[in-house]
Design goal:
This protein has an eight-stranded antiparallel beta sheet, covered by helices on one side. Strands 17-16-19-14-15-18 form a six-stranded antiparallel beta sheet. Strands 10-9-11-12-13 form a five-stranded parallel beta sheet, with helices on both faces. It has 21 helices and 24 strands. It binds flavin mononucleotide. The site of flavin mononucleotide (FMN) has 25 residues, from helix 10 and strand 12. It comes from Pelomonas caseinilytica.
């Protein structure tokens, strides 16, 4: 069982009890905070001798003086037969008011300590604390794996909202939760009698009358050397027993003092078990320092957040869990498909491939990559591998690469298909490593490695076409991902362009429905650079377009170029004002522009200028934004051209450089414009500029190569900028 399973199942089961302990713990943290405000602490340097004198002067029948961990002094006395506990001011011994152990109902403490089940419940609570410890340890392993090691622990967290909440909260409170479970276990060990704090007998000592007048407490030599800061409790001798002694307990131990002479009669050092227990209590309850109690309270309350977000993560993963239908037995299959997936989506693609091949008459077996093997019956092997944790394998396939590297090469072709995201510097790194290892070992391949960006169904379908050709069989890979809730959007305006190479294009503006999914539901907020998924009629596969507007603009705008034979672009370019489309929003947080004053370098080609135009439109703060636009012909594909001129005029756009490749003196490609402006580009990067690139994959690749060359003298590269989260691409 891996760390992930341990974490998941412990979290889902014992996690519910941990929520009870967390919430009650958070409530109990109120007490130390409350007590810290009730009474003052002793002045620094005050000795127990002086304190005892002051208190005995004001409280005639004082029986015991306690210093609470908060520093407040409480005196226990008797009013007749009635025991009483009062706060006193250590400055003069004045009684300040009645002391109460807790302002909370007793059952809260009992619920926390024993789940309201008495002794059996104490074992239950201890077991839960142990489970919390294991949850924390597994969380640390998973956190490091997810983020790609210690060095990246503080990096940006990616994933769904629930995943981000779980990971970010984990980074903040994991250490505190670990500590509370360890200290909780330490305390349970003594409450349950597993550890004896002090097995020694008390010394048999008595006060001896000297015949002279008794020394007053303020002159007790034994008490003069002890600061109030070290005091735990001071028990006064009984008024009626002349042989009774004073007894003092401090963090260091306990001592017995002659009531007549004030001499220390006996002293016992605190045992190690007592000292450790003392620290555990302080750290677990926060009773010695109210700010720590606040931290503990927040950490306790966060357990509920972990449980809820963990539950959502489990629920979502459940929906994507591998459930391959129609799986042929391994030994009989002529096609084997092996999958490495963290979030589960790659299994969906595997199922699509599986079904298409099975429909073509193949016997297909699909399994997890850690079970990689070939069989005598296998004719083709496919490996579908996602990359995680900044270039690493998904957790379940952590050892698969090493295993494959040790296998003797077979003769059956093994084709790798990677799944990743270009926003990561190590794009599809695990698939690349698999491909390299397989080729180095001598395995043949039917097709070279292909990497699918952001789970693109279109890219997968294209790979399917290449596969169909290579196999010499008809094969269509139409992967229909699970779609989120969609809404109908109504076209309100369009601006048409002749487009380059005879492919007309339009900027389409849709009204954003304020009611159903719109602004009133915070969930549906979107920003320029996010994606709108459009489901064309007659297909379940959405096509994604980058948004040129944000919800604050009050409309949704995209730039669409007609793709020859393209179902969605044909549908969109055929729309008239008033027609509707079916759509949903897919956030693209890695491409979003963080707020700030840092300059922004925007590089876009063709319809790729759309999200960049959206950034400029919202640049009300007039941060310096510089746009490099690449097109073919200003008369045909200068999308947003009029808007850009207007934004230049009102300073939303600081500068605009264009390059048109199909006209004389047009300036070539956008990367040529960057090269011409090398000094300026370096200057902007030196000022901390953020870079956003949007356009075709080839264009993004050429821009990255150009910038690598331009930045080399600064010992910088595109990959270094990506590491610093200053460089993001949106490619299609
Ligand atoms: C936390 C996290 C880390 C990721 N790290 C990388 C990475 O280093 N390189 C990459 O190309 N993709 C990375 N991705 C993107 C995933 O590989 C991509 O979304 C993939 O399609 C997920 O497939 P799965 O759902 O089967 O796990 C990461 C995604 C997440 C959530």
């Amino acid at each position: 069982m891996g760390w992930k399973s341990i974490h998941r199942w412990l979290g889902l089961t014992v996690g519910t009890l941990a929520v009870v302990l967390g919430i009650t713990g958070a409530l109990l943290a109120v007490d130390p905070v409350d007590q810290a405000w009730q009474a003052p602490s002793a002045e620094p340097g005050l000795t127990v001798a002086v304190l005892a004198e002051r208190v005995t002067n004001t409280v005639a029948d004082a029986a015991e003086i306690r210093r609470l961990p908060s520093g407040a002094i409480v005196v226990y006395s008797f009013a007749g037969e009635q025991p009483r506990a009062s706060y006193v001011d250590p400055a003069d011994g004045r009684v300040l008011g009645t002391w109460q152990a807790s302002t909370l109902p007793r059952w809260v403490k009992n619920l926390h300590r024993s789940l309201l089940l008495g002794d059996a419940g104490r074992w239950g609570a201890a077991g839960t604390a142990l489970a919390m410890g294991v949850l924390c340890a597994s969380a640390l392993v998973l956190l490091l794996r997810r983020m790609g090691g210690w060095r990246r622990l503080t990096g940006r967290v990616r994933g769904t909202l629930a995943q981000r909440i779980h990971v970010v909260a984990g980074r903040v409170v994991l250490a505190v939760l670990c500590l509370t479970s360890i200290t909780g276990l330490t305390m349970s060990a003594s409450t349950l009698g597993l550890v004896e704090l002090d097995g020694r007998a008390e010394p048999e000592v008595l006060s001896v009358a000297t015949g002279q007048a008794d020394v007053p407490a303020s002159q007790f030599a034994a008490l003069q050397g002890i600061a109030v800061a070290d005091l735990r409790k001071l028990t006064l001798p009984s008024a009626t027993d002349p042989e009774d002694t004073w007894k003092i307990t401090t963090a260091q131990g306990q001592g017995w003092i002659d009531r007549h002479s004030g001499r220390m009669l006996a002293w016992q050092d605190a045992t190690w078990a007592q000292r450790i227990h003392g620290w555990a209590v302080v750290l677990h309850t926060g009773n010695a320092a109210w700010p720590w109690a606040v931290v503990l309270g927040l950490a306790g309350a966060s357990v509920l957040l972990f449980w809820l977000s963990g539950f959502v993560i489990w629920w979502q993963a459940r929906g994507q869990a591998p459930r391959i239908t129609g799986n042929a037995p391994l030994a009989q299959a002529d096609v084997l498909v092996f999958v490495a997936s963290e979030g589960g989506s790659t299994w969906g693609f595997a199922q699509t491939l599986h079904d298409a091949l099975a429909q073509g008459g193949h016997r297909v077996h699909t399994g997890a990559l850690e079970d990689f093997r070939t069989t005598p019956a296998a004719r083709q092997v496919f490996v579908l591998a996602a990359t995680y944790g900044d270039g690493q394998a998904p957790a379940h396939a952590g050892h698969a690469l090493d295993r494959i590297a040790r296998l003797a090469a077979g003769t059956v072709p093994v084709t790798v298909l990677g799944f990743g995201d270009r926003q990561f510097p190590a794009f599809c790194a695990f698939a690349v490593a698999l491909e390299q290892t397989l080729r180095q070992r001598g395995w043949p391949a039917l097709l070279p490695l292909e990497c699918i960006h952001q789970q693109s169904s279109q890219q997968f379908a294209l790979w399917g076409r290449a596969l169909s050709q290579a196999l010499g069989e008809p094969l269509v890979l139409e992967h229909v991902p699970r779609l989120p809730h969609t809404v109908a959007l109504r076209l309100t305006a369009r601006k048409d362009y002749p487009g380059a190479t005879g492919q007309p294009a339009s900027v389409l503006r849709f009204a954003w429905p304020a009611g159903s999914l719109g602004r009133r539901h915070g969930l549906a907020r979107f920003a320029a650079g996010d994606l709108v998924g459009i489901v064309p009629p007659g297909s379940g596969v959405p096509r994604y377009y980058s948004l040129a507007s944000g919800s604050q603009d009050g409309f949704l705008e995209i730039c669409v170029r007609l793709m020859p034979g393209g179902l969605c672009s044909t549908h969109l370019l055929g729309l008239k004002a008033g027609d509707t489309i079916t759509a949903f929003i897919r956030p693209n947080p890695a491409f979003a522009l963080p707020r700030g004053r840092r300059p922004v370098l925007l590089i876009g080609a063709g319809s790729g200028v759309a999200p960049l135009a959206g950034f400029i439109r919202r640049n009300e703060a007039r941060r310096p934004m510089h746009l490099y636009f690449g097109g073919r012909d200003p008369a045909r594909d200068f999308y947003f051209g009029d808007d850009l001129q207007q934004w230049l005029g009102d300073d939303r756009l600081a500068s605009l450089q264009t390059a048109f490749s199909r006209i004389a003196d047009g300036g070539g490609y956008v990367q040529d414009a960057l090269r011409r402006d090398a000094e300026r580009v370096r200057g902007l990067v030196a000022q901390g500029a953020l870079v956003r690139v949007c356009g075709s994959r080839t264009m993004a690749h050429d821009v990255a190569r150009t910038l690598d060359a331009l930045l080399a003298p600064m010992q910088l590269s595109v990959s270094a900028l990506k590491d610093e989260e200053r460089y993001a691409e949106d490619v299609f």
